[in-house]
């Protein structure tokens, strides 16, 4: 891309002679800008003349962000002045998260960037002699690229403020800063290939000043003034090059007239009839409604009549509220294109409210951590009112174990459900709050003054794994919530007194669960359950709003809180079930009431709690006890323990090795850092899938996800797109290249099955450099019970049969692994001291090595060993 910009810059003077009759009369004075460049996400394939992703991120799905006007003025330039330099990056910090998440982010640049001419701070409209003058420093483009923009629609009324030379310089500078230009200059409208979908971008302006300063050739080849026939020809050319979806930007600024809403929509309809599939109008001083237009060929074309100004001088009133459009384009397996869109409100926050950026996202999922919530809500409400009802707020959300639960029950309803009465004194304290819904919480991290607190600790059986830290009586009294449920009256807090608070809490949970009817999937297993849960969490939200907890929320107490977060809008609910203690899968399943229950695998994990492998099998199968009528149990038929079971429920089986399975993976292969395979459905239909994570066990997890999603009637192409988006969390199966090393970090949990699978995956990883080795760094496996020694020895025997060049271990259990490996040809190092392990690894590892770090979470291998060696890489 830099080469394109450089080549264009070198030819500017020749092109000026070809295109221009009159250039600005002021002297050329090149800006001195030296900044570290932000890498581009796209490169131009010279054979197809298509802009292709450097790293495709999915299959058959393109996530786009379309933004409004990026303006420039003296105030903005002054704010970016840092001594003798200009720095604009901090102005875009509040947008970076949302823009960089997209596959392609597009904005509309409303200013020239001609580095040979003075900027607006040094040249007035009058002195320019051109009626209007708008020119930005080249560092402004650096800030725009840093913010996450990949392409810029450049056609606007002021394209010729700095003459043909300035227009060509703008195109060249956009290219040089790692972005793709559209609508200005000598390059044709760009065609992008985004995750296998061809997307065209066209940019026009309703009017362009100073066209009389151009030759006929210049007016045809340099600028893009809107005319329906010209737009039709440009779009037709993109279609002939393979475009499946056309985005049209239309700038409606003018010095001669004001294009009102009806004018903008009229022009947009002409644009739609010319063939554009999605239209964004830009009028910087205005944000106006979103609508849909049915073209004469039957296409329904969204029209954003104006998204307002993304950025301009701080404090200008028309920059207070704007919006980004989030557009997801999918290509079905038959080649047809579908899309869905939503808006993300953005706006300014006053600095006395804690604002650190002139523009920030007013959305819970993307919001800048310092954005004032009240100001954000005001921006969100204004955007909703302006845009109208034909487009909704972006539904992305991040739900964790500490996300507040919803107010589901009033104190009066809680009293009635439990058949327990408040005392007259408590009723007086409650007053009118008796009939106002409150959140019901049972853990200290959710406790506050606005909730109903269930004060208890709970322990089923003898294992400490059943114990959780509940809310103490003292914490209730200190916090003074609306009400409490406890075994005794708590001073100053209206209290419902019950003998067993846990049972009371479960009664409330089950009542709330019965109010909602989301399609529910519960997943358990010795290994793979969290990965499968996260894969489900990538697929189901693409089909509808989904309750899905990020991180580890697989205990009953966390599952109960998830139920308390359900809302009428939730179409799906995904719940991980740990099943590590007797009766836990059964109790959890009966609480969650799944339509589909998945068991990913069974192995010798949790022996400490469950005693025998037979108990583990029985315990995992109890996840079926809460299935709804007609519900389905999904089992991994490649697992030796699951293949032989015959539960008395509807069963669907999946597998890689077993041809009798209902859902099968065939043609499984490792391609670089990905797994590719075909899913064969029960009816014989085949679907190509790519996972951006290694290991056959992850193919198995994807099969489980596919089977569950098909039970929910989710189309195959949506499942495929979601699976291709899955990335492992930082300490689960994460492959990171750093300093010439390839680190395979999988240190969240460890047992015989997951350790075996990790070593198998290690053997498939390519070394980053010739001569590199495969190295295992292992910490103790947890919860092995009476088989602690035996299972660590077993892993040693298995590693000895693998292509491993060196073994490092830490911990008592791994000492037995090391003893077995000393009988092999693999060099072994073992210690009980993390510092000694770090010294040994520092001495022995060399660039080109692939290193597996695997241990149970209690070992804390990531923080004690990985981070000191490689830094915080995950």
Automatic annotation (TrEMBL):
What SMART domains does its record include? PGA_cap
**What is an example of a GO molecular function annotated in this UniProt entry?**
ATP binding
Keywords, alphabetical:
ATP-binding, Ligase, Nucleotide-binding
Keyword Ligase in record: yes
Concerning Pfam families, the annotation shows: Mur_ligase_C (PF02875), Mur_ligase_M (PF08245), PGA_cap (PF09587)
> Known Gene3D superfamilies for this protein?
3.60.21.10, Mur ligase, C-terminal domain (3.90.190.20), Mur-like, catalytic domain (3.40.1190.10)
Name the record gives this protein: Capsule synthesis protein CapA domain-containing protein
Q: Which organism is it from?
A: Glutamicibacter uratoxydans (Arthrobacter uratoxydans)
Lineage summary: Bacteria, Bacillati, Actinomycetota, Actinomycetes, Micrococcales
């Amino acid at each position: 891309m830099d080469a394109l910009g450089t080549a264009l810059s070198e030819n500017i003077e020749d092109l000026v002679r070809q295109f221009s009759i009159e250039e600005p009369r002021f002297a050329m004075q090149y800006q001195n800008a030296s900044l570290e460049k932000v890498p581009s996400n796209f490169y131009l394939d010279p054979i197809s003349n298509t802009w292709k992703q450097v790293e495709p991120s999915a299959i058959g799905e393109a996530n786009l962000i379309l933004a409004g006007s990026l303006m420039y003025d003296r105030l903005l330039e002054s704010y970016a002045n840092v001594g003798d330099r200009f720095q604009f990056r901090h102005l875009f910090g509040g947008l970076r998260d949302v823009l960089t998440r997209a596959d392609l982010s597009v904005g509309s640049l409303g200013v020239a960037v001609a580095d040979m001419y003075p900027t607006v701070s040094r040249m007035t409209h009058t002195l320019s002699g051109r009626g209007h003058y708008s020119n930005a420093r080249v560092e402004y483009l650096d800030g725009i690229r840093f913010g996450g923009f990949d392409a810029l629609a450049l056609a606007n009324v002021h394209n010729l403020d700095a003459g043909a030379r300035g227009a060509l310089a703008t195109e060249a500078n956009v290219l040089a800063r790692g972005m793709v230009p559209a609508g200005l200059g000598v390059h044709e409208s760009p065609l992008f290939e985004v995750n296998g979908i061809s997307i065209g971008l066209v940019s026009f302006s309703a009017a362009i000043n100073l066209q009389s300063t151009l030759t006929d050739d210049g007016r045809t080849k340099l600028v893009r003034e809107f005319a329906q026939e010209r737009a039709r020809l440009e779009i037709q050319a993109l279609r002939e090059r393979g475009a499946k979806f056309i985005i049209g930007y239309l700038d409606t600024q003018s010095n001669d007239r004001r294009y009102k809403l009806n004018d903008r929509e009229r022009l947009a309809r002409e644009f739609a009839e010319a063939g554009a599939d999605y239209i964004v109008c830009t009028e910087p001083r205005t944000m106006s409604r979103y609508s849909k237009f049915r073209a004469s060929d039957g296409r329904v074309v969204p029209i954003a009549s104006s998204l307002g100004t993304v950025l301009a001088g701080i404090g200008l009133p028309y920059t207070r509220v704007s919006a980004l459009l989030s557009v997801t384009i999918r290509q079905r397996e038959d080649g047809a294109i579908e899309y869905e869109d939503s808006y993300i409100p953005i706006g300014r926050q006053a600095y006395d409210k804690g604002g650190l950026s002139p523009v920030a996202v007013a959305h819970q999922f993307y919001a800048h951590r310092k954005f004032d919530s009240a100001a954000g809500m005001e921006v969100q409400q204004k955007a909703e009112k302006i845009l109208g009802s034909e487009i909704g707020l972006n539904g992305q959300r991040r739900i964790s174990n500490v996300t507040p639960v919803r107010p589901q029950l009033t104190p009066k309803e809680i009293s009635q459900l439990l058949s327990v009465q408040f005392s007259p004194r408590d009723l007086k304290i409650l007053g009118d709050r008796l009939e106002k819904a409150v959140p019901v919480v049972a853990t200290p991290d959710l406790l506050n003054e606005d909730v109903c607190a269930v004060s208890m600790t709970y322990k089923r059986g003898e294992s400490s794994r059943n114990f959780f830290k509940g809310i103490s009586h003292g914490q209730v009294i200190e916090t003074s919530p609306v009400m409490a449920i406890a075994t005794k009256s708590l001073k100053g807090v209206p209290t419902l007194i019950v003998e067993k608070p846990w049972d009371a809490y479960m009664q409330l949970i089950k009542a709330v669960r019965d109010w909602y009817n989301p399609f529910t999937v519960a997943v358990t297993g010795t290994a793979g359950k969290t990965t499968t849960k996260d894969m489900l969490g990538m697929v189901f939200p693409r089909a509808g709003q989904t309750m899905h907890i990020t991180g580890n929320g697989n205990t009953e107490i966390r599952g109960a809180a998830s139920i308390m977060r359900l809302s009428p809008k939730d179409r799906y609910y995904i719940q991980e079930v740990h099943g590590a203690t007797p009766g836990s899968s059964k109790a959890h399943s009966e609480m969650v009431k799944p339509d589909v229950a998945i068991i990913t695998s069974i192995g010798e994990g949790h022996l400490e709690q469950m005693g025998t492998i037979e108990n583990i099998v029985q315990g995992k199968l109890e996840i079926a006890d809460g299935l709804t009528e007609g519900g389905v149990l999904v089992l991994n038929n490649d697992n030796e323990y699951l293949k032989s079971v015959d539960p008395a429920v509807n069963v669907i089986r999946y597998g890689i090795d077993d041809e009798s399975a209902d859902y099968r993976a065939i043609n499984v292969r490792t391609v670089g850092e990905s797994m590719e395979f075909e899913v064969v459905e029960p009816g014989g239909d085949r679907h190509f899938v790519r996972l951006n994570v290694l290991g056959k066990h992850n193919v198995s997890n994807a099969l489980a996800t596919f089977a569950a999603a098909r039970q929910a009637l989710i189309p195959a192409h949506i499942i495929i797109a979601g699976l291709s988006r899955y990335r492992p969390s930082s300490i689960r199966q994460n492959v990171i290249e750093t300093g010439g090393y390839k680190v395979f970090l999988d240190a969240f949990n460890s047992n015989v099955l997951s350790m075996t699978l990790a070593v198998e995956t290690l053997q498939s990883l390519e070394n980053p450099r010739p001569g590199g080795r495969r190295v295992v760094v292992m910490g103790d496996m947890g919860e092995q019970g009476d088989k602690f020694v035996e299972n660590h020895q077993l892993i040693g025997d298995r590693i000895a049969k693998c292509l491993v060049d060196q073994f490092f271990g830490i911990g008592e259990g791994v000492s037995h692994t090391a003893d077995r490996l000393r009988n092999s040809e693999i060099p072994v190092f073992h210690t009980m001291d993390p510092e000694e392990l770090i010294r040994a690894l520092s001495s022995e590892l060399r660039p080109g090595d692939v290193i597996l770090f695997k241990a149970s979470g209690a070992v804390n291998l990531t923080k004690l060993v990985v981070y000191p060696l490689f830094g915080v890489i995950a």
